[in-house]
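seq as requested:
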Amino acid sequence: MTTGYRPELIQRAFVDFISRRLHPFWSLTVPKLRLIARHALSDDLIALQFEPNHAFKQQAFSSNNSSGHRLNKGWHGGQHINVSVLLDGVYHQRNYSLVGLAQQSLWWHEDSEQKPHKNNNNLNNSFDKKSSAQSGTSTVTIAIKPQGLVSDYLSKRAALGTIFNSSLPSGEFTLAHSVLAQQASQISEPLPLISLSVPLLFIASGSGITPMLGLITQALQNGHPVTLLHYNRTTFYKSPLQDQWQQLANRYSTFIYHLINTGDPSTYLANSRHLSVETLIALKLPLMDTQIFACGSPALLASLYRACDEIDLPHGKQLRDHIKIESFSAIESLDCMFSTIDKADKETVTSEAKTIYLRGRQRQYNSSTTLLLDAESAGIRLSHGCRQGICQLCRCNKISGRVKNIQTGKISNDGYESIQTCINVPMTDVVLDI
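struct tokens:
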């Protein structure tokens, strides 16, 4: 009887074992990146360009992703990769946003084709002239802020040619996930997967602009009207990043951007350095139909939710349901976590502990704060990483029950879905597939 199983004559693991000893960059199964260039995007933002190995290109550019969907262009705008860095004998992992879209030129490559290259500072260097001159077809670029142990090493001290282990592109801060979420929650009329008429508003602060570098380009290419609102503490004048926005504005009449230097009143929108109701109204967008993408500090996100709550939409709709967020900053306290939960829901969360059942382990515990914190209080170890809702390592599947996201204030449905235990509190008894 034929089973369809065909044993490998030569095991891929064996080939990997041999190839790694011939050259550390070679692998059939492990995605790896080799640092080949640095490029300054602004006073405090640096782009790092990598050459991917065969395993990365095979799995990301020409294979199916973990969801079973074929990624013809490598990744979606807004996604990120996890880079593993060895420092003093300890591996550190950090997520970094991907710049631009796969198999498309980055804007500084386009500039270099039109005018002679000027090496303005020691960041504009490359490991291999042939590799760095590539138009993005087979390179991977991330944007980082040179702060913190790993980011400082990557941006300043890592030698060009250094090899790092990497994950494949992932993340749900994308156009596709946003539209599907709207359909699932029925916050408006059902939308096709590619809707050319939905206006998009992108709001960022500081390095929160990094996941939007590819996302905005993809949105414009798909025909969306796009408005960008970027708050920063440093000047944008004549920076490469501002050049990118101006290039897009010249190319697409549907793109409008506002760069707000919080220390320069001449750049303020609605005469305010902070995000407010007046700011959103000043944009003159059809807010009823606008999808909002936001990434930045907890203060920015809290301001956004407060402003949205003050805007009344017809038919009982809420503007906060149009928001898709990404956060790079820590939540400092539980009080801050609950700041986005209205009073009635806060009383529901804190007044009575809910039962959390782990189906795979046949264990249960009580929870009145986040699922992760109370599991640890009960002596149960769950997978986790940053504890901030960023790294996705705590993500698991919820079988039943309702939870509330403490960053967005959104309440889940009662059925099966993927959640993060570090930023969700139970609203009812919950069953997790753990």
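The radius of gyration is 23 Å.
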